[in-house]
Amino acid sequence: MALSFGQKAGWGLADMGIGVFVVVKQLLVFAFLTTFLGVPPAVAGWATFLVLGFDVVTDPLVGYLSDRTESRWGRRLPWMAVGAPILAGGVVGMFLVPEGMGWQANMGWVVAFFALATIGFTCVAIPYGAMAGEMTQEARERSAMTAWRMVFASLGLLAAGAVVPALAGESRSGYGRAVLTVAPLILVTIWGMLWLTRAAPRISRPATGSFAATLARVMGNRPFATLVSLYGLMTLAVAIVAAGLQLAALYLIADAHSGPIGALVDTLGAFSTLFACFIVGAVASQYPWVRLSARLGQLGALIAGLALYIVVLGIIYLALPAASVSLLAVLFVLAGVGNGAYQQIPWAMYPDLMDLTRSRTGEPIEGAFSALWLFGQKVANACAPLILGLILAAAGWQESTSGVVPQSDAALEALRVSLTLVPAALLALALLGCATLYRGALRRAVA
Q1: Is 253 in a helix, a strand, or coil?
Q2: Would the keyword Transmembrane helix be found if you checked this record's keyword annotation (predicted)?
């Protein structure tokens, strides 16, 4: 049965709320800890790494349990319905840090609520990803669903990545007030998706295999395991950029005060302006990436998107430090186009690989596939702030409790390289792996 427009678009709606947390963990936490709570960068990196590392442990468990869940609402809905308020509450608590505590206590407060939010995120994201493999087995419908997902995800990223810093300003207390304005999006969009897709096709029969047998079936799908690794490498590159982007806006970019971009910077600030440009590029590129996937194949379109991303990061390296936001605004639109391919195309590819295992074994283990799919991303997201923190600490980066402080030339150069050349090299490795390892594994699997 073909999915309706409302079901395809409705499935994507949840990623607006999910996107809010993605921004919080990738763009805001590290800068908030080091710039307003006085946490040394290496310690902040380790703290975020450990929280996200704990989240990795829970993924296989939630995926396995959601596959085996039996309820009148299906296997996935109960997990997402409960996970959404836990996620929203954790996000708000992270930034409502009481005044008067030392940096160790500040870090402990943030870590506690960060862990709570990641538990809620896992309960939502694993079943959500599994739905892509259950609702349809038609590749074009999955591409359309993923395009809608990316549009709504980009709006969520924009709400959290542009609106929160703009509302927060350069104050610690401002962040708490700002997240209160976007947290309701988490509940409304996730619960809204559950309502809009309530009549969509789903596999209600629970899986019966043991945990070990299920894991073996998933890992035995070689194209899927290869794609997980390569997408994790891509995510590591993007997450390193995200973790340091706000620091770049504070230390490597001067505000412009002329022309339309200058007016926008005066209103939103450099970080929010550049992030908005990035989102514009990502949203505008969704339909072209769907069309290019149909023309070149999903793998060919992904390779083209990665190549574009690499080139743009190299140009951004040459443009930094920048005395004006205008050129960077154009470059961030182009970076958003490359990011659109990174976010859309692999998410349309991996449900097709679920079908290979289901057709051979008969086991409906979409939750297990979703768990491993997110595993690679969460490992990358956990490692990114740690890598950035260690690089900056080695270069002598100075933490602060009062905003921007003077940094050495070596520290600023380390930030510049970390946000451009390092992720470009990681994306180049992922591109090479897609063209060789993944292509070969897929050919052998379907032969």
Answers
A1: strand
A2: yes
CB 126 within 8 A of CB 68: no
Q: What is the pLDDT along the chain (447 residues), one digit of tens a residue?
A: 578 888 888 888 998 988 888 777 766 787 788 888 888 888 888 887 787 777 667 888 888 888 888 877 888 889 999 999 999 999 999 888 988 888 899 999 998 998 899 899 999 988 898 887 788 777 778 778 888 888 888 788 777 776 777 777 777 778 888 888 888 889 999 999 999 998 887 777 777 778 788 888 888 889 999 999 999 999 999 989 888 887 888 888 876 555 566 666 665 667 777 888 888 898 889 889 988 998 999 999 999 999 999 999 999 999 998 877 788 888 999 999 999 999 889 988 888 888 888 778 777 788 888 888 888 888 888 788 889 989 998 999 887 776 778 889 999 999 999 999 999 999 999 999 999 999 999 988 876
- Give the Cα separation of 251 and 105 in Å (integer): 27
Give which of 152, 158, 136 is closest to 4, Cα–Cα.
Answer: 136
Identity at 291, one-letter amino acid code: R
Tokens read off for 284: 């505008």
Residue 398 Ramachandran class (φ > 0 left, ψ -120 to 50 alpha, else beta): beta
Can you read off the two tokens belonging to residue 205?
């029969």
d(CA 42, CA 47): 9
> Considering the entire predicted model, what is its pTM?
0.77
Tokens 């049965």 locate to: 1
Structural tokens at position 334: 């182009």
The rounded distance, in Å, linking the Cα atoms of 366 and 132 is 9
Domains of the chain: 5-194+208-446 (1.20.1250.20)
Cα–Cα nearest to 290, from 151, 193, 153: 151
DSSP state of 399: P
The answer to whether the beta carbons of residues 38 and 400 sit under 8 Å apart is: yes
DSSP 8-state symbol, 395: T
Instruction: Using alpha carbons, select from 330, 246, 309, 276 the residue that is nearest to residue 154.
Output: 276
333, 273 Cβ separation under 8 angstroms = no
- Asked if residue 376 lies in contact with residue 229, where contact means CB atoms within 8 angstroms, the answer is yes
User: Residue for token digits 């969704």?
Assistant: 286
